[in-house]
Design goal:
299 residues, mainly alpha, DNA polymerase, domain 1, hpI Integrase, Chain A, two-stranded antiparallel sheet, DNA recombination, Integrase_catalytic, DNA binding, DNA-binding
Length: 299
Protein backbone atom coordinates (compact mmCIF):
# COMPACT_ATOMS: atom_id res chain seq x y z
CA UNK A 1 0.00 0.00 0.00
CA UNK A 2 1.45 3.38 -1.00
CA UNK A 3 1.76 6.02 1.67
CA UNK A 4 -0.21 9.18 1.00
CA UNK A 5 1.81 12.40 0.81
CA UNK A 6 0.21 14.97 3.08
CA UNK A 7 0.94 18.60 2.10
CA UNK A 8 2.72 20.60 4.78
CA UNK A 9 0.41 23.58 4.17
CA UNK A 10 -3.02 24.17 2.58
CA UNK A 11 -2.70 24.00 -1.20
CA UNK A 12 -3.70 27.39 -2.60
CA UNK A 13 -4.54 27.49 -6.31
CA UNK A 14 -1.16 26.98 -7.93
CA UNK A 15 -1.36 29.94 -10.30
CA UNK A 16 -2.17 32.33 -7.47
CA UNK A 17 0.64 30.91 -5.32
CA UNK A 18 3.08 31.14 -8.23
CA UNK A 19 2.09 34.76 -8.87
CA UNK A 20 2.66 35.64 -5.22
CA UNK A 21 6.05 33.92 -5.27
CA UNK A 22 7.05 35.80 -8.41
CA UNK A 23 6.13 39.12 -6.79
CA UNK A 24 8.08 38.20 -3.67
CA UNK A 25 11.21 37.18 -5.54
CA UNK A 26 11.08 40.42 -7.56
CA UNK A 27 11.15 42.37 -4.29
CA UNK A 28 14.00 40.23 -2.98
CA UNK A 29 16.08 40.66 -6.17
CA UNK A 30 15.62 44.43 -5.95
CA UNK A 31 17.62 44.29 -2.70
CA UNK A 32 20.02 41.54 -3.76
CA UNK A 33 23.69 42.36 -4.42
CA UNK A 34 24.17 40.21 -7.48
CA UNK A 35 25.60 41.31 -10.82
CA UNK A 36 23.13 43.21 -13.00
CA UNK A 37 23.20 40.53 -15.72
CA UNK A 38 22.53 37.80 -13.13
CA UNK A 39 19.57 39.69 -11.67
CA UNK A 40 18.13 40.18 -15.15
CA UNK A 41 18.56 36.48 -15.96
CA UNK A 42 17.01 35.37 -12.66
CA UNK A 43 13.95 37.55 -13.21
CA UNK A 44 13.56 36.17 -16.71
CA UNK A 45 13.92 32.54 -15.58
CA UNK A 46 11.48 32.90 -12.67
CA UNK A 47 8.92 34.48 -14.99
CA UNK A 48 9.43 31.68 -17.53
CA UNK A 49 8.87 29.04 -14.84
CA UNK A 50 5.68 30.66 -13.57
CA UNK A 51 4.41 30.97 -17.15
CA UNK A 52 5.17 27.29 -17.82
CA UNK A 53 3.55 26.27 -14.54
CA UNK A 54 0.41 28.19 -15.48
CA UNK A 55 0.10 26.02 -18.60
CA UNK A 56 0.66 22.84 -16.57
CA UNK A 57 -1.26 23.68 -13.41
CA UNK A 58 -3.47 20.58 -13.69
CA UNK A 59 -0.41 18.31 -13.62
CA UNK A 60 1.22 20.17 -10.73
CA UNK A 61 -1.50 21.54 -8.43
CA UNK A 62 0.83 21.07 -5.43
CA UNK A 63 3.81 22.94 -6.90
CA UNK A 64 3.73 25.41 -3.99
CA UNK A 65 2.13 23.14 -1.38
CA UNK A 66 5.21 21.33 -0.10
CA UNK A 67 8.74 20.26 -1.01
CA UNK A 68 7.61 17.06 -2.75
CA UNK A 69 5.21 18.91 -5.05
CA UNK A 70 7.69 21.72 -5.69
CA UNK A 71 10.53 19.37 -6.63
CA UNK A 72 8.24 17.37 -8.93
CA UNK A 73 7.17 20.54 -10.77
CA UNK A 74 10.69 21.94 -11.10
CA UNK A 75 12.02 18.56 -12.27
CA UNK A 76 9.33 18.48 -14.97
CA UNK A 77 10.31 22.01 -16.01
CA UNK A 78 13.95 20.91 -16.15
CA UNK A 79 12.97 18.10 -18.57
CA UNK A 80 11.03 20.64 -20.63
CA UNK A 81 14.10 22.92 -20.92
CA UNK A 82 16.38 20.05 -21.93
CA UNK A 83 13.89 18.85 -24.56
CA UNK A 84 13.81 22.43 -25.89
CA UNK A 85 17.61 22.13 -26.43
CA UNK A 86 18.57 24.68 -23.76
CA UNK A 87 22.26 24.44 -22.93
CA UNK A 88 23.20 22.78 -19.62
CA UNK A 89 24.54 26.10 -18.36
CA UNK A 90 21.23 27.84 -19.13
CA UNK A 91 19.27 25.03 -17.49
CA UNK A 92 21.38 25.27 -14.35
CA UNK A 93 20.98 29.04 -14.27
CA UNK A 94 17.21 28.57 -14.52
CA UNK A 95 17.23 26.00 -11.70
CA UNK A 96 19.31 28.31 -9.50
CA UNK A 97 16.84 31.15 -10.06
CA UNK A 98 13.77 29.05 -9.31
CA UNK A 99 15.43 27.43 -6.27
CA UNK A 100 16.06 30.94 -4.94
CA UNK A 101 12.42 31.86 -5.58
CA UNK A 102 11.16 28.85 -3.64
CA UNK A 103 13.58 29.51 -0.79
CA UNK A 104 12.89 33.22 -0.31
CA UNK A 105 9.33 33.53 -1.57
CA UNK A 106 7.72 30.21 -0.60
CA UNK A 107 10.01 29.11 2.26
CA UNK A 108 10.55 25.75 0.57
CA UNK A 109 14.09 24.38 0.27
CA UNK A 110 14.09 22.26 -2.86
CA UNK A 111 16.93 20.18 -4.30
CA UNK A 112 16.64 19.39 -8.02
CA UNK A 113 19.43 17.64 -9.90
CA UNK A 114 21.45 20.01 -12.08
CA UNK A 115 22.15 19.37 -15.76
CA UNK A 116 25.57 17.94 -16.53
CA UNK A 117 27.82 20.58 -18.07
CA UNK A 118 30.28 19.12 -20.61
CA UNK A 119 33.94 19.59 -19.83
CA UNK A 120 35.22 22.56 -21.84
CA UNK A 121 37.45 21.69 -24.75
CA UNK A 122 40.85 23.07 -25.55
CA UNK A 123 40.96 26.88 -25.76
CA UNK A 124 40.64 28.30 -29.26
CA UNK A 125 44.04 30.01 -29.21
CA UNK A 126 45.71 31.47 -32.27
CA UNK A 127 48.68 29.63 -33.68
CA UNK A 128 51.97 31.54 -33.54
CA UNK A 129 51.71 32.19 -37.27
CA UNK A 130 48.20 33.60 -36.86
CA UNK A 131 49.35 35.68 -33.91
CA UNK A 132 52.09 37.21 -36.04
CA UNK A 133 49.55 38.01 -38.77
CA UNK A 134 47.28 39.70 -36.21
CA UNK A 135 50.20 41.76 -34.87
CA UNK A 136 51.07 42.99 -38.36
CA UNK A 137 47.46 43.70 -39.35
CA UNK A 138 46.87 45.66 -36.13
CA UNK A 139 50.02 47.76 -36.66
CA UNK A 140 48.88 48.65 -40.20
CA UNK A 141 45.55 49.98 -38.86
CA UNK A 142 47.24 52.62 -36.72
CA UNK A 143 48.40 53.26 -33.18
CA UNK A 144 45.02 53.06 -31.44
CA UNK A 145 43.93 49.75 -32.93
CA UNK A 146 47.39 48.24 -32.40
CA UNK A 147 47.24 49.26 -28.71
CA UNK A 148 43.72 47.82 -28.31
CA UNK A 149 44.79 44.48 -29.76
CA UNK A 150 47.84 44.43 -27.49
CA UNK A 151 45.75 44.99 -24.35
CA UNK A 152 43.67 41.95 -25.33
CA UNK A 153 46.53 39.79 -26.62
CA UNK A 154 49.35 40.68 -24.19
CA UNK A 155 47.36 41.48 -21.03
CA UNK A 156 44.49 39.02 -21.44
CA UNK A 157 41.82 41.67 -20.95
CA UNK A 158 38.16 40.92 -21.60
CA UNK A 159 36.47 43.24 -24.09
CA UNK A 160 34.45 44.82 -21.25
CA UNK A 161 37.58 45.57 -19.23
CA UNK A 162 39.37 46.93 -22.29
CA UNK A 163 36.51 49.30 -23.12
CA UNK A 164 36.40 50.51 -19.49
CA UNK A 165 40.05 51.64 -19.38
CA UNK A 166 40.89 55.23 -18.47
CA UNK A 167 44.26 56.90 -18.94
CA UNK A 168 44.91 56.59 -15.19
CA UNK A 169 44.66 52.80 -15.50
CA UNK A 170 47.95 52.72 -17.43
CA UNK A 171 51.32 53.00 -15.67
CA UNK A 172 54.32 52.79 -18.05
CA UNK A 173 57.92 53.74 -17.41
CA UNK A 174 61.04 53.32 -19.56
CA UNK A 175 61.51 49.69 -18.51
CA UNK A 176 58.29 48.53 -16.89
CA UNK A 177 54.60 48.85 -17.35
CA UNK A 178 51.29 47.60 -16.01
CA UNK A 179 47.62 48.10 -16.64
CA UNK A 180 44.68 48.12 -14.22
CA UNK A 181 41.80 45.92 -15.36
CA UNK A 182 38.32 45.92 -13.86
CA UNK A 183 37.00 42.37 -14.00
CA UNK A 184 33.80 40.57 -13.09
CA UNK A 185 32.18 41.36 -9.75
CA UNK A 186 34.15 44.61 -9.31
CA UNK A 187 37.42 42.63 -9.15
CA UNK A 188 40.40 44.89 -9.92
CA UNK A 189 43.89 43.67 -10.80
CA UNK A 190 47.13 45.13 -12.14
CA UNK A 191 48.60 43.13 -15.03
CA UNK A 192 52.21 43.61 -16.17
CA UNK A 193 52.76 44.58 -19.80
CA UNK A 194 55.48 43.09 -22.01
CA UNK A 195 57.69 45.41 -24.04
CA UNK A 196 55.69 45.16 -27.29
CA UNK A 197 52.49 46.21 -25.51
CA UNK A 198 54.24 49.03 -23.62
CA UNK A 199 55.58 50.45 -26.87
CA UNK A 200 52.27 50.37 -28.71
CA UNK A 201 50.18 51.71 -25.82
CA UNK A 202 52.72 54.52 -25.30
CA UNK A 203 52.59 55.35 -29.02
CA UNK A 204 48.80 55.67 -28.82
CA UNK A 205 48.94 57.86 -25.69
CA UNK A 206 51.36 60.23 -27.44
CA UNK A 207 48.74 60.73 -30.17
CA UNK A 208 45.75 60.77 -27.81
CA UNK A 209 47.30 63.18 -25.34
CA UNK A 210 47.56 63.06 -21.55
CA UNK A 211 44.17 64.50 -20.72
CA UNK A 212 42.20 62.36 -18.20
CA UNK A 213 39.34 60.20 -19.36
CA UNK A 214 38.64 57.09 -21.46
CA UNK A 215 41.74 55.58 -23.04
CA UNK A 216 40.11 54.68 -26.35
CA UNK A 217 38.61 57.62 -28.24
CA UNK A 218 37.21 57.89 -31.73
CA UNK A 219 35.38 60.35 -33.94
CA UNK A 220 32.13 59.77 -32.03
CA UNK A 221 33.59 59.68 -28.54
CA UNK A 222 34.84 56.84 -26.31
CA UNK A 223 34.80 53.32 -27.79
CA UNK A 224 32.20 50.92 -26.39
CA UNK A 225 32.47 47.14 -26.07
CA UNK A 226 30.93 46.94 -29.53
CA UNK A 227 33.59 49.32 -30.83
CA UNK A 228 36.38 47.18 -29.37
CA UNK A 229 34.84 44.10 -30.98
CA UNK A 230 34.60 45.83 -34.35
CA UNK A 231 38.31 46.72 -34.19
CA UNK A 232 39.21 43.07 -33.53
CA UNK A 233 36.91 41.85 -36.32
CA UNK A 234 38.55 44.26 -38.79
CA UNK A 235 42.04 43.19 -37.70
CA UNK A 236 41.03 39.54 -38.06
CA UNK A 237 39.72 40.12 -41.58
CA UNK A 238 42.96 41.84 -42.54
CA UNK A 239 44.98 38.98 -41.04
CA UNK A 240 42.99 36.31 -42.87
CA UNK A 241 41.14 35.20 -39.71
CA UNK A 242 37.48 36.16 -40.31
CA UNK A 243 35.24 36.24 -37.26
CA UNK A 244 38.10 36.95 -34.83
CA UNK A 245 36.72 37.99 -31.43
CA UNK A 246 38.36 39.60 -28.38
CA UNK A 247 37.98 36.47 -26.27
CA UNK A 248 40.09 34.46 -28.69
CA UNK A 249 42.95 36.89 -28.06
CA UNK A 250 42.46 36.32 -24.32
CA UNK A 251 42.59 32.54 -24.91
CA UNK A 252 45.84 33.05 -26.83
CA UNK A 253 47.34 35.07 -23.96
CA UNK A 254 46.53 32.34 -21.43
CA UNK A 255 47.84 29.59 -23.72
CA UNK A 256 51.15 31.44 -24.26
CA UNK A 257 51.49 31.84 -20.49
CA UNK A 258 51.18 28.10 -20.02
CA UNK A 259 53.54 27.34 -22.91
CA UNK A 260 56.06 29.72 -21.35
CA UNK A 261 56.05 27.90 -18.03
CA UNK A 262 53.38 29.70 -15.99
CA UNK A 263 51.61 27.48 -13.46
CA UNK A 264 47.81 27.47 -12.91
CA UNK A 265 48.06 29.93 -10.01
CA UNK A 266 49.87 32.45 -12.24
CA UNK A 267 47.29 32.07 -15.00
CA UNK A 268 44.43 32.44 -12.49
CA UNK A 269 45.87 35.65 -11.07
CA UNK A 270 46.70 37.22 -14.44
CA UNK A 271 43.32 36.38 -16.00
CA UNK A 272 41.32 37.32 -12.91
CA UNK A 273 39.59 33.95 -12.61
CA UNK A 274 37.61 33.46 -9.38
CA UNK A 275 38.40 29.74 -9.41
CA UNK A 276 41.57 27.92 -10.39
CA UNK A 277 39.35 25.35 -12.18
CA UNK A 278 38.59 28.03 -14.79
CA UNK A 279 42.31 28.35 -15.49
CA UNK A 280 42.87 24.59 -15.71
CA UNK A 281 41.43 24.36 -19.23
CA UNK A 282 44.47 26.18 -20.58
CA UNK A 283 46.64 23.28 -19.44
CA UNK A 284 45.12 20.86 -21.94
CA UNK A 285 47.07 20.87 -25.19
CA UNK A 286 45.10 20.28 -28.38
CA UNK A 287 46.06 17.96 -31.28
CA UNK A 288 47.89 20.68 -33.22
CA UNK A 289 50.08 21.57 -30.25
CA UNK A 290 50.75 17.89 -29.47
CA UNK A 291 51.90 17.31 -33.05
CA UNK A 292 54.13 20.40 -32.87
CA UNK A 293 55.76 19.14 -29.67
CA UNK A 294 56.44 15.70 -31.17
CA UNK A 295 57.96 17.22 -34.31
CA UNK A 296 60.19 19.54 -32.28
CA UNK A 297 61.44 16.80 -29.93
CA UNK A 298 62.15 14.21 -32.61
CA UNK A 299 63.40 16.39 -35.45
Amino acid sequence: MTAQVVPLRPAAPVTAAAGEALTAIERYLDRCKLAANTLKAYRRQCTAYVTWLGRHADAHPDAFADVVGAEAAVTAWRRHLLRAKASPAKVNQALAAVTLMYDHAARLRIDVKRAQVPRPGEPDALTRQQQGAVDRAAARRGERDAAIVDVLLYAGARAEACARLDLEDVAITARTGKIRLHGKGDEVRWVPLPAIARERISAWIRIRGNQPGPLWTGQRGPLTISGITQVVLAVGDAAGIPGLRPHRLRHTYATRLRQGGADPAHVQALLGHASIESSARYFRAGPAEQAEVVERIFE
